[in-house]
Write a structure and sequence with these properties.
The protein is mainly β and 1003 residues long. The chain is 11% helix and 43% strand. The two termini are 28 Å apart.
Length: 1003
């Protein structure tokens, strides 16, 4: 709308007040009460209006004024209504309750559609989260907040992921994986952040104060938004058109005095040229202090096995552990460079040196601008930049030999004549000697630091073409540059030189070794040392090494569309309008990863990673139509159908077409029924296509291990026979490596897209005779075929040795000592996945006195099924109600719930928040385990997490005090290779009870 148009068309005062109420309600509860109880204002607010695609303004009275004040929590709820990006919602609008909401006379753009539709008339299940809901939790990043939602899964990474997360916060929807959910900002794609083995939109880099709302489309969205929207779309809507300012400061600390967290954020906006233009600047800086595993009793001592007599810590000691040829520890090194009999007391507790919660610092800046040249042309732009650093600490690195594709010795054999090797007197076969594992404490703890710079810049234009046809065209550029540094990884060649160990057959990774007492001659700084004794500071300095890696991701996206909500009116009584939207998109993504040269050569003691690079381009066209068949007739307050389709052409795998159909029927203003059916797809990501080969140490148990063979029940004889065929006797063989197996992962340029199908149906009930009440229920079902993944290490091992999949045996290599050398698990189009469940949401606001009112909100999810097929034509494994142990695997609780209760008294409010998660049986990657002989614990209990928040508003000032994890509940025990729990599922319990204090001011 042009400036002249706005002057001619002044909105009623009550209409303007409704836009201002969300800001002033905390300081003026009388106005808030009027907004809820006044029928006249409610009716006028529902009057139709034109809304700019980018903003809504009606002079100064309606300018958006985001507030740091915390009002009534606006429940995370399933609604079919969202606000225009620049419009501050009233409580009624946010709830979608009351006569205006039921009537569906006001049109808004809903995530999942490019057409404006009446309230409660969209067939898509959309969940809305407001900025106040996020702020009242005291959480400093979006990813941690979303973990509270029952629909958010556990396959992403969080701040407790110390082995591969790099401080990146990925998000997962319906436990379908972070790669199957599309994250947008203001409806447009944004840059991704690379991490070990993949990439995602880093939720930790998005400034919380800049968020106006988050909309979650819990349905496939590929037919409208393109690839990756298999489980749904998370659309983060940012604040725009601000002409005020605010500063917010917060800090929190655990009752144990650690994990100190601080945040300062601010924004300021300016209108200019009689409100035709606006410039807004926002900034945020936050820091998280972290926690060490040794500082929590439940994570202090790592349990690495699930037997009745479980093992703790690592057999790889700082003095060195000598193994017999059949894999049993027999000797430890000593300070004199000799050896003494092995003792369990020498096992190493690696958790005493390992981070539980990462240290992070993040600085974010956002600039937003737009200018109305006329109603036909509005120019807008947005730039987001973040610089994030994270720091984690891990135990000193173990020296265990090289890993593929290195040609250095894969096993550190001790020659029979090696000084101090008393094992050589017993195991004196020169072709089958004892071997050594040693934790290099002299190199110090590994400190991994990452620095990530992310930039997303968008420029576009929108406006009216003619006769109701609108357009929106934009170009988005995204770039992420990451650098990683890890100290204490060691130079394998230099270490072997100092130990005097030379390869008998250089270039053969399976070579035996010979002792060379003069190996350091001619090498400056090299100090001749014993592998069975400590290194001197000079020797450690020579053999130590710090790696430096770099990665870059780039995205270019051009998007243009036109739409008309009222192309034609149906020529019969009670008929509605036909709306059409169509557009095109061209996108290109490129990624490169440059590991440290020594790492790429396999010359260090850490994982081997190869350099990689690649990209793809896609051109797409899409079409949407929405037809209102009946409107305001008996038994059909609204009856509408919606159809969407998208054609995509990739330069990598070819073309694909996806579609979705939906229906919405509102027999009365109080109830609406909806349903959708559609397809979706996920393109192989750049990292999945071109990701370089990398070696990781995954939690897994060798089936041939003497302590594991009994766990295979009726298949025990088959496992034993297959082990014996490879010269391994399970009666006395013991796995090395503390339950970790070197696993080769990497990209596959021949990958094809995943194919998905989704259907949903549900109902929304907003009875006009119970003001303030809104409830909805939905059933959802997802299926994914040709799923892209790497087989779990345990699945490969079990498939081979149980005989369930003999082809897996070719993916396993063993050293001459019988120890597993590597397991190959590259990306591939494997089996399928199906899951279904039920959502139920409730929101009820009621007043008890003039000064007091309550808000009750609840979000509930019941998982009905979760089945996965690992390989084509293979068995379907049931993961319902189970959690993967041995590593940081996914979890599928049957029931999840998030509830809040708020009491408001004038300017004071108290909010109680509760998360519930049902108990789960443990799963070893293929099968759920139950209590039986040989097993220890087999399940986690039901868990409850409680928070309590106090808020007080004093004019322009607001104050908040919060107790997080009110009961100081610790996470449940789960056997794995690190923290004795699962951070992606129970990360909210990790820190323990914490206290938060926040203050803010508006100006």
């Amino acid at each position: 709308m042009s400036h002249t148009d706005r002057r001619k068309k002044r909105l009623p005062l009550s209409f303007s007040l409704l836009y201002a109420l969300p800001v002033f309600a905390a300081g003026a509860p009388v106005l808030a009460q009027a907004a809820v109880t006044s029928p006249s204002s409610e009716t006028r607010a529902a009057a139709p209006k034109k809304v700019s695609v980018h903003k809504v303004r009606a002079g100064k009275a309606t300018a958006q004024k985001p507030s740091t004040q915390t009002l009534a929590p606006q429940t995370v709820r399933k609604q079919n209504v969202v606000q225009a990006p620049s419009s501050a919602r009233t409580i009624q609008q946010a709830r979608g309750a009351g006569a205006s909401a039921a009537g569906g006379t006001e049109t808004v753009e809903v995530t999942g559609s490019y057409l404006r539709q009446g309230r409660n008339t969209s067939p898509n299940p959309v969940q809305i989260i407001t900025s106040r809901e996020i702020q009242q939790t005291g959480i400093t990043n979006v990813g941690d907040f979303l973990q509270r939602m029952p629909s958010i899964g556990s396959s992403g990474t969080g701040n407790a992921d110390t082995n591969g997360g790099d401080g990146v916060g990925c998000v997962d929807l319906r436990n379908l994986g972070s790669s199957r959910v599309l994250v947008l900002i203001d409806g447009k794609r944004v840059t991704q952040t690379g991490m070990s083995g993949g990439s995602c939109v880093d939720m930790n880099t998005i400034p919380v104060m800049a968020i106006q709302s988050i909309e979650i489309l819990k349905d496939g969205g590929s037919e409208l938004y393109g690839a990756d929207a298999v489980s749904g779309v998370i659309n983060i809507k940012m604040r725009h058109d601000i002409n005020t300012g605010a500063i917010n400061v917060r800090g929190d600390i655990t009752q144990r005095g650690d994990n100190k967290t601080g945040l300062i954020s601010a924004y300021k906006g300016w209108n200019f040229d009689h409100d035709r233009g606006n410039i807004t600047l926002m900034g945020q800086y936050d820091t998280v202090g972290g926690v060490m595993m040794k500082d929590r009793a439940w994570s202090r001592n790592p349990q690495t096995s699930n037997g009745m007599n479980p093992g703790f810590g690592s057999v790889i000691s700082t003095s060195g552990t000598v193994f017999s040829p059949d894999g049993n520890p027999i000797y430890n090194g000593n300070s004199a460079g000799g050896s003494s009999p092995y003792s369990k007391s020498s096992r190493y507790n690696y958790n005493k040196d390992t981070s539980l919660l990462n240290n992070t610092q993040n600085a974010s800046l956002m600039g937003d601008a737009h200018y109305d040249f006329s109603k036909h042309f509005t120019l807008y732009s947005n730039v987001m930049y973040s610089h994030k650093t994270s720091w984690i600490q891990m135990a000193p690195i173990p020296a265990m030999g090289s890993v593929a594709p290195s040609d250095l010795p894969s096993t550190i054999y001790l020659p029979t004549g090696y000084p101090g090797n008393t094992a050589g007197d017993i195991y004196n076969d020169p072709d089958n000697p004892a071997y050594l594992y040693r934790r290099m404490a002299e190199f110090g703890t590994r400190k991994s630091e990452s620095a990530v710079d992310s930039l997303t810049a968008k420029v576009g234009a929108n406006g009216e073409i003619i006769a109701g046809w609108m357009y929106d065209a934009s170009f988005t550029f995204g770039s992420t540059m990451s650098s990683f540094q890890t100290s204490g990884v060691g130079d394998y060649n230099k270490l072997m030189r100092e130990w005097g160990l030379d390869a008998v057959t250089p270039g053969d990774s399976n070579t035996l070794l010979t002792y060379n007492p003069n190996s350091c001659v001619g090498y400056a700084g090299c100090v001749q040392s014993s592998a069975l004794g400590p290194l001197s500071p000079e020797a450690a300095q020579y053999a130590n090494y710090t790696e430096h890696d770099h990665s870059q991701y780039t995205m270019r996206d051009f998007n243009a569309r036109i739409h008309n909500d009222h192309v034609v009116h149906m020529p019969y009584k009670g008929g509605g309008d036909l709306g059409i939207a169509l557009g095109m998109e061209h996108r290109g993504e490129q990624m490169s990863y440059h590991p440290d040269p020594l790492i790429a050569q396999g010359g260090s003691l850490t994982n081997t990673v190869l350099p990689t690079g690649g990209g793809f381009n896609v051109s797409e066209a899409y079409l949407e139509g929405n037809l209102t068949l009946l409107h305001n007739v008996p038994f059909a307050k609204n009856l509408s159908i919606d159809g969407q389709g998208r054609f995509s052409s990739y330069n990598t795998f070819g073309t694909t077409y996806n579609w979705k159909a939906g229906i919405n029927w509102s027999p009365t203003r109080d109830v609406a029924f909806r349903g959708t059916l559609g397809t979706s797809f996920r393109q192989p990501s750049v990292s999945e296509l071109y990701g370089g080969t990398l070696m990781s140490y995954n939690g897994a148990n060798d089936p041939c291990d003497m302590t594991q063979i009994t766990n295979y029940g009726g298949r025990q004889s088959t496992v034993m026979a297959n082990c014996m065929k490879q010269g391994i006797n399970p009666a006395n063989f013991q796995q090395g490596g503390s339950g970790q197996v070197a696993t080769l992962n990497g990209g596959n340029a021949k990958l094809q897209p995943e194919i998905g199908r989704t259907y949903t149906f549900g109902a929304t009930f907003t009875p006009h005779w119970i003001p303030g009440l809104s409830t909805s229920a939905s059933f959802w079902h997802y299926s994914v075929s040709h799923s892209i993944s790497a087989l779990s290490t345990q699945y490969v091992l079990d498939g081979c040795y149980t005989g369930s999949d003999p082809s897996m045996c070719s993916n396993i290599t063993r050293s001459a000592s019988g120890q597993i050398n590597t397991v190959s698990a590259l990306n591939a189009n494997l089996g399928s996945l199906t899951t279904s469940g039920v959502d139920w949401d409730l929101s009820y606001r009621f007043r008890v006195t003039d000064a007091d009112w309550f808000m009750v909100e609840n979000n509930f999810q019941r998982l009905v099924s979760y089945k996965q097929q690992m390989v084509p034509n293979g068995p379907h494994y049931n993961y319902l109600g189970s959690i993967t142990y041995q590593s940081q695997g996914t979890s599928n609780p049957t029931v999840r719930d998030y509830a809040t209760l708020t009491w408001h008294h004038n300017n004071f409010s108290v909010t109680y928040m509760m998360q519930y998660m049902s108990g789960m049986h443990w799963n070893d990657g293929t099968n759920t385990i139950y209590k039986s002989q040989g097993y220890g614990r087999v399940k986690t209990p039901a868990m409850v997490l409680q928070d309590l928040t106090f808020n007080y508003n004093l004019k322009r000032w607001n104050f908040q005090f919060e107790i997080q994890n009110l009961a100081d509940k610790q996470p449940p025990f789960l056997v794995n290779t690190s923290s004795n729990s699962n951070d992606s599922t129970y990360g909210g319990w990790y820190a323990g009870r914490s206290f938060l204090l926040q203050a803010g001011v508006n100006f």
